């Protein structure tokens, strides 16, 4: 897969979920999360999508190949890394 870097919200139109090839409701259906994540794995804007979901605190649906529960874990880990960096910067 080749990642595509696009600015603003242009990336959303490049997502496989917007291609018309897949049922868009699948990405907001807890019973089809696994299927949606498999589509995301092939999506050229996956990283950008995940970044958006984390930054905007998207609570529902599969974004960037991650379920809401997986994004909570990712966000917690990211915060711990950031806090560790801040602490090290302050204490040398
Ligand atoms: S990563 Fe998934 S949810 Fe995000 S744009 Fe691509 S297909 Fe859609």
TrEMBL record:
Signal peptide: none annotated. InterPro entries: 4FE4S_WBL (IPR034768), Whib (IPR003482). Residues 16-73 form the 4Fe-4S Wbl-type domain. It comes from the Bacteria. Its cofactor is [4Fe-4S] cluster. Keywords: 4Fe-4S, Cytoplasm, Disulfide bond, DNA-binding, Iron, Iron-sulfur, Metal-binding, Transcription, Transcription regulation. It holds the Pfam family Whib. It is found in: Cytoplasm. Its main location: cytoplasm. Binds 1 [4Fe-4S] cluster per subunit. Following nitrosylation of the [4Fe-4S] cluster binds 1 [4Fe-8(NO)] cluster per subunit. GO terms for molecular function: 4 iron, 4 sulfur cluster binding; dinitrosyl-iron complex binding; DNA binding; metal ion binding; protein-disulfide reductase [NAD(P)H] activity. The Fe-S cluster can be nitrosylated by nitric oxide (NO). Upon Fe-S cluster removal intramolecular disulfide bonds are formed. [4Fe-4S] cluster binds at residues 17, 40, 43, 49. One of its GO terms (cellular component) is cytoplasm. One of its GO terms (biological process) is negative regulation of DNA-templated transcription. Belongs to the WhiB family. Acts as a transcriptional regulator. Probably redox-responsive. The apo- but not holo-form probably binds DNA. PANTHER family: TRANSCRIPTIONAL REGULATOR WHID-RELATED. This is Transcriptional regulator WhiB.
């Amino acid at each position: 897969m080749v990642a595509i870097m696009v600015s603003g919200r242009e990336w959303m139109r490049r997502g496989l979920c917007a291609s018309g090839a897949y049922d868009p409701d699948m990405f907001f259906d807890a019973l089809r999360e696994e299927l949606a994540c498999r589509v995301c794995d092939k999506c050229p804007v996956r990283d950008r999508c995940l970044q958006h979901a984390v930054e905007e605190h998207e609570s529902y649906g599969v974004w960037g190949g991650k379920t809401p529960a997986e994004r909570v874990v990712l966000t917690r880990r990211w915060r711990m890394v950031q806090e560790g960096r801040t602490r090290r910067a302050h204490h040398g």
